[in-house]
Amino acid sequence: MLTMGIDIGSAACKSLILKDGKHILSKEVFPLGTGTSGPNKVFEQALANACLEHKDLDHIMVTGYGRFTFDAADSQRSEITCHAAGMHFTMPKVRTLIDIGGQDIKILRLNERGKVESFVMNDKCAAGTGRFLEVMARVMNVRIEDLGALSMQSTEEVSISNTCTVFAESEVISKLSTGVKLPDLVAGILASVAKRVASLAFRNGVEAEVGMSGGVALNEGIINALSKELKTQILVPELCQYLGALGAAIYAGKEAL
């Protein structure tokens, strides 16, 4: 059986093809989200990577922010359940799942079967999200993928008091004008994100093991800052960016039976 999961986010699209619900044949990520060519790009490239055609797939499931806009899918499911399934597939001992997306933050509590017992999310403000990090990186004229490495060079973290993206942007510009060291400022920005995420996590309850999904999980500075705030290790699966697509592919297999 061949199934595909597609995760259409606000900032990026991911796809993954599973064989018999166990073996990953292909995966793809494209740095454009819903409303762009991203969904079609990851769909076509994942097929090409596996030397497959659309007709070879038994079922396609789409998830994510833009899941209602992709016509090639056979079904759709929320990103909450798909990320949970993807995390359980890769790290079955995880009970608290943190997902920092482009536009929101989700904290999930999972049971031993990988099912969602409870969740909280922040989708009213961009503070602490991938979009927040994009804005901060642009203001500091650095690549977003370099933020983690820069923060590790910090010797004296510079605190950021504003959580609102607009006000934080002005605060960062002001601190840059006073000559603060860039690594110290980056460390402060990542610490502010970690505090925001940790506050949300404590509202839902934090139970070990704690895992993180999404592209922001590739940022070692965020992982370190969040570990300090939660006072526990943060586990990051190798497939962290693809967990939504993986979960969708898993559920696609169940629907195809």
Characterization of this structure:
With 257 residues, the protein is α/β, with parallel strands linked by helices. The protein has helices spanning 38-49, 79-90, 130-140, 147-151, 165-177, 182-204, 220-230, 243-256; strands spanning 2-8, 13-19, 23-30, 59-63, 75-76, 96-100, 105-110, 116-122, 210-213, 234-235. The strands form two sheets. A five-stranded mixed sheet has the order 3-2-1-4-5. Strand 9 (210-213), helix 7 (220-230) and strand 10 form a beta-alpha-beta unit. The protein is globular and about 60 Å long.
Q: How would you briefly describe this protein structure?
A:
With 257 residues, this protein is α/β, with parallel strands linked by helices. The protein is 39% helix and 21% strand.
**Largest sheet descriptor:** 5 strands, mixed
Question: What is the helical fraction, as a range of percent?
Answer: 25-40%
Beta-strand level of the residues, as a percent range? 15-25%
In whole angstroms, the N-to-C terminal distance is: 9 Å
Q: What order do the SSEs take from the amino end to the carboxyl end, as H and E?
A: EEEHEEHEEEHHHHEHEH
Kindly provide the radius of gyration, computed on alpha-carbon positions and rounded to a whole number of angstroms.
18 Å
Overall pLDDT: 93
- Strands, total number: 10
Given the helix and strand composition, which structural class is it?
alpha/beta
Strand order of the largest sheet: 3-2-1-4-5
Q: Spans of 5+ residues with little confidence (pLDDT < 50)?
A: none
